[in-house]
Amino acid sequence: MSKFKSFLERKDIVFSAKRYGIDALGAMAQGLFASLLIGTILSTLGQQLGIEILEQIGNFASSVKGAAMAISIGYALHCPPLVLFSLAAVGYAADTLGGAGGPLAVLVMAIISAELGKAVSKETKVDILVTPIVTICSGALLSIWCAPAIGAAASSVGKAIMWATELQPFFMGILVSVIVGIALTLPISSAAICAALSLTGLAGGAAVAGCCAQMVGFAVMSFKENRWGGLVAQGIGTSMLQMGNIVKNPRIWIPPTLAAAITGPLATCVFKMQMNGAAVSSGMGTCGLVGQIGVYTGWVNDGIAIGAFEWISLILISFVLPAVLTWLIALPMRKKGWIKENDLKLDL
């Protein structure tokens, strides 16, 4: 047993929730961002501006999302070069066979084949043959056997959430908005979760609302401590920056979370805001304005006549309401001493 443990240590194979549930999942979201999401944005711009070459470039980027996700996961798992490059084939296979739930299939298949590839890497004199063969064959075979089922399961869960949101937009609006928003601030990837579940439609709109509430809420609530640098870093970057402060004083998480519980049902019940762009956009909020671009892309894809109501609803849900509600909720908490001066201070 000790020999096996030392072997795993030497190969940097770590069986842990952090390695797979945070590091790998977060990296997968970046791979998805750098392929499907950017590709969708470019192709949409190409369509709207009549620039055919831009649309073509966007389609190229979107088409390699499986490979991009798998390589990103391999990078997070510290794979040696031959394993890392071989994961492109694994990602393509898992994403293709996983269907709508392809991202989750890629996550599972890439982790398994990456660890198997790492295990055999540089163990033989013909490493240049053995390592790619083990990595690709294990990942491809597992994809053939398991990816359709994993993809179908993930897709079913996503469809169930979207169906429930259509059926009960008020309560599900609260639930989806709060949960996805919390996931955005935690050191896990809300974008990857939304992508894995193919979360779009009204549920996607609620997810966007929850993410915006966390990002814009924290940015505005901490403006006194962090000024303009903090406003930009959290409002267009990530509310995850506040995680260290949340551990010290969990009460600072109450205002943006309550704001999410309000903006979520407003998005689903009042404004009927849907996110029908790339599902990964549902979990991005105002990060690089990706959530808003995703909503706009959905409007274009659905052939919606974009008028003042659509723009006003998007601005209110994404920016105005999160800022105002979080500030109002935080005000009495500051007076009561639940939130003290510098509780939200960031080292920027």
Give the topology string: H per helix, E per strand.
HHHHHHHHHHHHHHH
Describe the largest sheet.
none
Uncertain regions: pLDDT < 50 for 5+ in a row? none
Strand content: under 5%
Morphology call = globular
Terminal Cα span: 46 Å
Radius of gyration, in Å, reads 21 Å
Average residue-wise pLDDT: 93
Work out the helicity level: over 70%
* Number of separate helices: 15
Annotation, overall tally of beta strands: 0
**What structural class is derived from the secondary structure elements?**
mainly alpha
Walk me through this protein's architecture.
By secondary structure, the protein is an all-alpha fold. It is built from 15 helices and no strands. It has helices at 2-10, 17-49, 52-63, 65-76, 81-98, 102-120, 127-167, 169-185, 190-196, 201-221, 223-237, 243-248, 254-270, 290-302, 308-336. Helix 2 crosses helix 14. The protein is globular.
List keywords for this structure.
77% helix; 348 residues; mainly alpha
Describe how the helices and strands are arranged.
Elements (H helix, E strand, L loop, with lengths): L1 H9 L6 H33 L2 H12 L1 H12 L4 H18 L3 H19 L6 H41 L1 H17 L4 H7 L4 H21 L1 H15 L5 H6 L5 H17 L19 H13 L5 H29 L12
Provide a quick synopsis of the model.
With 348 residues, this protein is mainly α. It has helices spanning 2-10, 17-49, 52-63, 65-76, 81-98, 102-120, 127-167, 169-185, 190-196, 201-221, 223-237, 243-248, 254-270, 290-302, 308-336.
